């Protein structure tokens, strides 16, 4: 049967079909650093490459107007900073039978625990389509909440609604309800990737204080006459201690 003509305006977003099944990963790599080492990131990749090619560097720890015999120098080794990044990743997704994901939550001047309590109270009532709430928590680094019910079937009916009006304080806010999906890595392959602007320095003796050693390293590797250049970040781990470096996507 024919349908009546109706003018419509599309206000959604269009995407390429090839992009529908792609997963975008943001690098966030934790790398252990041994004692007596330092990570130095230069503003230019060519400076880092030049420092690595020189391999060994005599770093003067006692800058100032001292006699040549009184100056303290140490030999440090410069090596490239290689980290492992995923080259292939397969994730098995499993929808939860008892949990829902709440998003589009209002930004209110109340503690997070208070907001969780109000959401629990609302969704624990059968008149709101809910049931006994087993647990609730904010996703890490997110403004979304995972709500888990004690019974099966409750989450499915709420997900079908898609959204609901939740009274919080003196207002009423529309909250989005989505399925809660967990992912397990079923296959992961890694490949080494070199940080183009970062150099790892090894063999730094524990001679000066932490701050003085850091300053001496930065002064040395900023000098063009020593093959260096402008330093963006420098992190130093004294001998006898360990550290963890956090690598993120290079946007500069």
Automatic annotation (TrEMBL):
Subcellular location: Cytoplasm; Nucleus; Secreted
Start and end residues of each NID domain: 38-135, 145-232
Ranges in coiled-coil conformation: none
Annotated keywords: Cytoplasm, Immunity, Innate immunity, Nucleus, Secreted
Top-level taxonomic group: Eukaryota
Main location: cytoplasm
A GO biological-process term: regulation of innate immune response
GO cellular component, one term: extracellular space
InterPro entries membership: Nmi/IFP35_dom, Nucleotide-bd_a/b_plait_sf
Pfam families in alphabetical order: NID
PANTHER family listed in its UniProt record: INTERFERON-INDUCED 35 KDA PROTEIN (PTHR15225:SF1), INTERFERON-INDUCED PROTEIN 35/NMI N-MYC/STAT INTERACTING PROTEIN (PTHR15225)
Protein family: Belongs to the NMI family.
Protein's name according to its UniProt entry: IN35 protein
Organism of provenance: Copsychus sechellarum
Gene that this sequence comes from: Ifi35
């Amino acid at each position: 049967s024919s349908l009546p003509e109706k003018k419509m305006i599309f206000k959604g977003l269009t995407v390429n079909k090839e992009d529908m099944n792609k997963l975008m990963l943001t690098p966030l790599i934790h790398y252990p650093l041994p004692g007596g080492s330092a990570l130095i990131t230069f503003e230019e990749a060519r400076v880092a490459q030049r420092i690595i090619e020189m391999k060994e560097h005599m770093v003067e720890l006692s800058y100032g107007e001292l006699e040549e015999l009184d100056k303290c120098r140490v030999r440090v080794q410069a090596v490239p900073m290689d980290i492992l990044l995923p080259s292939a990743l397969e994730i098995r997704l499993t929808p939860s039978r008892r949990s829902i994901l709440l998003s589009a939550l209002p930004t209110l001047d109340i503690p997070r625990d208070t907001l969780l309590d109000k959401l629990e109270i609302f969704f624990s009532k059968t008149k709101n389509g809910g049931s006994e709430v087993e647990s609730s928590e904010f996703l890490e680094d997110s403004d979304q909440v995972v709500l888990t019910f004690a019974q099966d079937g409750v989450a499915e009916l709420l997900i079908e609604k898609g959204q609901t009006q939740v009274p919080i304080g003196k207002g009423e806010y529309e909250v989005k309800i989505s399925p809660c999906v967990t992912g397990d890595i079923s296959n992961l392959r890694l490949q080494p990737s070199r940080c183009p602007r970062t150099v790892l320095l090894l063999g730094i003796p524990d001679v000066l204080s932490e701050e003085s050693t850091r300053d001496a390293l930065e002064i040395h590797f900023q000098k063009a006459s020593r093959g260096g250049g402008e330093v963006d970040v420098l992190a130093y781990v004294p001998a006898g201690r360990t550290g963890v470096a956090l690598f993120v996507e290079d946007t500069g």
